[in-house]
Write a structure and sequence with these properties.
α1 packs parallel to α2 and α7 packs parallel to α8. The chain is α/β, with parallel strands linked by helices. The protein has 11 helices and 8 strands. The structure holds phosphoenolpyruvate.
């Protein structure tokens, strides 16, 4: 039985004041989410502040990205070890905004995944196809390529303590959501690809859906067999919506 996970990706949003208010709002309603694990991923400069506010709430902290490097002359980077030191459990790697806006390659994402694992963080590996790729029938080939890059560098064992998020690029921040059937098909494909290498790891890994998930569509998506939670962007910035999505997972 996989414990559902609902994680909020706050992206480039927030201030000291709004982070405090949002976390207070989520914490006030957290008792309604049942067995679902709830995580938030604020911008890295707010991790320490958020970590202090989350103490004893049961809400878990994550970061939105980490460096592929340990340390050294890499201006602007934040290492997995630093993130770990500030109390994070999770780190998102390979978000489509990083892949498409900042040109992150599959190899770079795989290196970040490895850094996260080496520093006792649980990577949330994002995979997903663009609209063009879907329309050209390339969805599975793209997802396979993105997964295989990580399998090649970290091995299937690397997925023993990891989460995968299927996020169709055409559904992120657009208000368009994959139908439960479309999402389930890709989630099953992802699990099956891991199953070819390790039945136990494939059965245990949580595969989240991300892409315009809202309280109105979360219940139907989360009912699918291979959808184990959500990675939430826009709706995670409203405590009430975020908690309502998490509550639909139980
Ligand atoms: C995301 O960026 O991970 C995401 C799923 O965004 P949204 O929920 O806004 O589509």
């Amino acid at each position: 039985m996989r414990q559902p996970l609902v994680a909020g990706n706050w992206k480039l949003n927030g201030s000291l004041e709004s982070v405090s208010a949002l976390l207070a709002g989520i914490a006030a309603q957290i008792s309604t989410v049942g067995a679902t694990e709830v995580a938030v991923c604020p911008p890295s400069v707010y991790l320490q502040h958020a970590g202090q506010l989350l103490q004893d709430t049961g809400i878990v902290l994550g970061a939105q990205d980490c460096s592929d490097q340990d340390q050294g002359a890499y201006t602007g980077e934040v290492s997995a070890a630093m993130i770990r030191e500030f109390g994070c459990t999770y780190v998102i790697v390979g978000h489509s905004e990083r892949r498409h806006i900042y040109g992150e390659s599959d190899a770079l994402v795989a290196a970040k995944f490895a850094q996260a694992r080496e520093n006792a963080l649980v990577p949330i590996l994002c995979v997903g196809e663009t609209l063009d790729e879907r329309e050209n029938g390339q969805t599975e080939a793209v997802i396979a390529r993105q997964l295989d890059a990580v399998l090649a560098s970290s091995g299937v064992e690397g997925f023993g303590k990891a989460v995968i998020a299927y996020e169709p690029v055409w559904a992120i921040g657009t208000g368009k959501t994959a139908t439960p059937g479309q999402a389930q098909q890709v989630h099953a494909f992802v699990r099956d690809r891991l199953r070819r290498q390790d039945e136990g790891i494939a059965g245990g890994i949580r595969i989240l859906y991300g892409g315009s998930m809202k309280p109105e569509n979360a219940g139907a998506l989360l009912q699918e067999n291979d959808i184990d939670g959500g990675l939430i962007g826009g709706a995670s910035l409203k405590a009430e919506d975020f908690v309502a999505i998490a509550a639909s997972g139980t």
